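Item description
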Amino acid sequence: MDGKQGWTVADAVDYKGFPADRSKTGGWVPAALILGIEICERLSTMGIAVNLVTYLGGTMHLPSSTSANVVTDFLGTSFLLCLLGGFLADSFLGRFKTIVIFACIQTLGTGTLALSTKLPSLRPPSCHSDENCEEANGFQMGILYLALYLIALGTGGLKSSVSGFGTDQFDEKNEAEKTQMAYFFNRFFFFISLGSLTAVTVLVYIQDEVGRSLAYGICTISMFIAILVIMSGIKRYRYKKSAGSPIVNIFQVLVAAIRKRNMDLPYDYNMLHENSPEGSRIHHTDQFRCLDKAAVVAEGDFVKNGSGSTLNPWNLSTVTRVEEVKMMARLLPVWATTILFWTAYAQMITFSVQQASTMERSIGGFRIPAGSLTVFFVLAILLTCAIYDCFIIPLWKKWKGKPGFTDLQRMALGLILSTLGMAAAAVVEMKRLSVAKAVGGTTTVNPLPISVFMLIPQFFLVGAGEAFIYTGQLDFFITRSPKSMKTMSTGLFLTTLALGFFMSSFLVSVVKKVTGSHGGEGWLADDIDNGRLDCFYGLLAILGVMNFGVYLVVARWNKKDDKAVEMESVV
């Protein structure tokens, strides 16, 4: 009997619902099948996003600012929908079903996009001069939006569950599998970068030189194959039972605290309600004391039934449940100050690509697609990760006795590098505009006699910044959240990406309206040669400096808060 128990995984089941057999389920084989669908998701999403702005401007004839907003809204929605996917996975579907269902939705979206770029009736007629350009009509844009937001919905559901389902294949309580899980995270990030690299090189080249419908068709077929591959491992996977959505738990604490807002807290916090198992209890802390009222016992908190009474979770919460909400609340200040990084990131796949489309991109007889300039962005991420792992971590461990920078330090580096990237982008754009003015703009000379490789510094700086801030945020949100809310905290992290893209759309709309209000086209003109994109980049750099100042205050508060929580735990 003891031997039998040793071969089963405590909190996982197989496809029949029986306790998972360690020798027949989980491990690297099913994890590899899950990594395959992540490659295809990145190939589709990034391959579409990085070059979409050129299609919107060149084929659909939309203004540059409108094109940029379409792209950032699409990406923002993709990451925001991760919360929906996580909620459905935790509460109803489970991670495997969520992945398969939303992968099918993404396949439908890429297929619709391939169709919309293939049929002449779904795009406006070609134009030979600026005066005769006809923008896409409502029906044409409607089909395009349908395709993009089906892809966004599919991406949101996939991203919310793929990494979690991958880690489900390893048992944290088994030392050998725990080590394998650490490697899984590294390989997961590697495959994300590999999919992105393939997207910004091969897929973008096919879009520009062969045809967009073929490129999007490749995305559709690859995702369909990935669905078949992941379904082939049904008998090999380990499945975790849904434990309910942490979002509901948070709302229960908030509702209970609001209902009891007029009640007094007891003089002794041991009088607060607590019935959690001893091993999983969280000690009471003094922060956010208003939430403690959710654990004050009052009349009507227990509902009588035939066998006794049951607790109404919307009226009364345990101290542990309240402390879990407090832990999530402590994440919010850092969450808010990292949003602006992703606003700067958004410029790399919108306005920076538009800049590249006007510049000299030839190497010998080969012309680099404008969207492929983001390859330097991906290379910066991979190079930074390699340098950090091979050099910085060992040196820092010898000097400080710690394995690399802390999560707060990595996020700080990301914010600094993105601000420097926006400053570099402003300087390069000033140079590009001076060349455009000298030769009469791209309507006279196309491309402009200025090398596209001048854009490399901004791509490298923001790319290196992402390597630091992405890993720093992931570490921060996972390690500082309660065990029962790890999925929720990951979703919270992904909302910083979503809100960063939406912030970009908001800033673009505001700047377009304010600077173009006196009859001129303003900073963000339809033709960037007639605008002042350098001023927009400069604005983002200034906002970055201000945001970093706020971040330093928040980071210092978090360090003090960590010490206070440690002292409470000791007591």
Observations:
- Residues 7-242 form a domain with the Growth Hormone; Chain: A; fold (CATH 1.20.1250.20).
- The first helix runs from residue 2 to 6.
- The beta strands are 8-13, 19-21, 302-305, 308-311, 359-360, 362-363, 366-367, 448-451.
- Residues 1-5, 564-571 have pLDDT under 50 and may be disordered.
